[in-house]
């Protein structure tokens, strides 16, 4: 092999556009990116449908101001009724044929930059509703990738329906700190995740995000939430996306994930059959 060919092969090329490189750097450094929603119509549709579904489940009429209604839903439901409300909202939203495309349209370009332009999307709708001071619906510190179900190629698109800040939001450990702390997990085997959280707490980033913005993060780093100590209710969706042709673990294509953007060259490739007479013997 000539010297030129050799050096070309070892070079790490980056043909990303400038704005893609900015997103890539942010995502690699922070483990997440917060971005303006790309379609306010799509986001408003999702919020309006969620508010209508919640009001219906609570035997109320559709609210004039969906954001204010969701933010103060603790005036209409208590901790005991919360899970039924959440499940009923999810069921209503799953009945909308255009929920998923609207959700994707909130961050189509962002996902294409961070993940790829041939994508699989989680079918189920994951919704968090966190009432003030409720310790019953917490997601303690974890990395989704620690379970055998999650592929590290997944990215979570987390969409809030209300402004989220402080303990009303969620936290993540940036990748560099995560890489350091994962080597020390063994030390916390007996004391548990609360002790681990206390140890990493000074290094976590709390995501400050307003309605109108979306968050994309890698669930391979440690993250979670705490008791919501604000006096407002958090409403957020978390739905996963991954490159269609990246490895699948427990969450399979056609079951947990569905293909949402298949390019024609891939269709040709997937449908191609080698004519029998031309097989190498
Ligand atoms: O919404 C949260 O606070 C945490 C979400 C989460 O753990 C996830 O989407 O993987
Ligand atoms: Fe998670």
Considering the chains and any ligands shown, give keywords for the structure.
about 280 residues, alpha+beta, Jelly Rolls, binds 2-oxoglutaric acid, binds fe (ii) ion
Please tell me about this protein's structure.
This protein has about 280 residues and is α+β, with helices and mostly antiparallel strands. The protein has ten helices and ten strands. It has one domain: q2cbj1_9rhob like domain (Jelly Rolls), CATH 2.60.120. The protein has helices at about 5-10, 20-30, 40-55, 65-70, 80-95, 100-105, 110-115, 175-180, 195-200, 265-270, and strands at about 30-35, 120, 125-130, 155-160, 170, 205, 215, 225, 235-245, 255-260. The strands form two sheets. Strands 1, 2, 3, 4, 7, 9 and 10 form a seven-stranded antiparallel sheet that branches. Strands 6-5-8 form a three-stranded antiparallel sheet, with no helix packed on it. The chain is globular, with a radius of gyration of 21 Å. 2-oxoglutaric acid binds near residues 128, 223 and 236. Fe (ii) ion binds near residues 142, 219 and 223.
Question: Short summary of the structure?
Answer:
The chain has 281 residues and is an alpha+beta fold. Helices cover 35% and strands 15% of the residues. α3 (40-57) crosses α6.
């Amino acid at each position: 092999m000539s010297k030129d060919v050799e050096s070309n092969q070892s070079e790490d090329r980056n043909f990303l556009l400038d704005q893609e490189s900015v997103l890539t750097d942010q995502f690699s450094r922070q483990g997440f990116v917060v971005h303006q929603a790309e379609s306010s119509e799509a986001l408003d549709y999702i919020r309006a449908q969620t508010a209508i579904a919640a009001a219906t489940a609570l035997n109320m009429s559709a609210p004039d101001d969906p954001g204010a209604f969701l933010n103060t839903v603790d005036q209409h439901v208590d901790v005991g009724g919360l899970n039924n409300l959440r499940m009923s909202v999810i069921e209503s939203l799953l009945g909308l044929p255009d929920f998923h495309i609207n959700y994707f349209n909130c961050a189509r370009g962002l996902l294409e930059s961070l993940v790829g332009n041939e994508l699989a999307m989680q079918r189920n709708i994951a919704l968090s509703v966190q009432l003030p001071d409720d310790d019953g619906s917490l997601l303690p510190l974890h990395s989704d990738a620690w379970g055998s179900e999650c592929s590290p190629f997944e990215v979570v698109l987390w969409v809030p329906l209300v402004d989220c800040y402080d303990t009303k939001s969620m936290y993540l450990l940036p990748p560099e700190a995560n890489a350091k702390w994962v080597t020390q997990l063994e030390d916390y085997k007996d004391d548990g995740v609360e002790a681990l959280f206390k140890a990493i707490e000074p290094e976590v980033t709390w995501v400050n995000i307003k309605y109108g913005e979306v968050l994309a993060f890698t669930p391979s780093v440690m993250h979670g939430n705490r008791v919501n100590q604000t006096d407002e209710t958090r409403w957020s969706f978390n739905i996963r996306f991954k490159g269609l042709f990246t490895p699948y673990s427990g969450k399979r294509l056609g079951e947990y994930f569905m293909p949402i953007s298949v390019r024609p060259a891939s269709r040709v490739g997937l449908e191609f059959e080698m004519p029998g007479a031309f097989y190498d013997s």
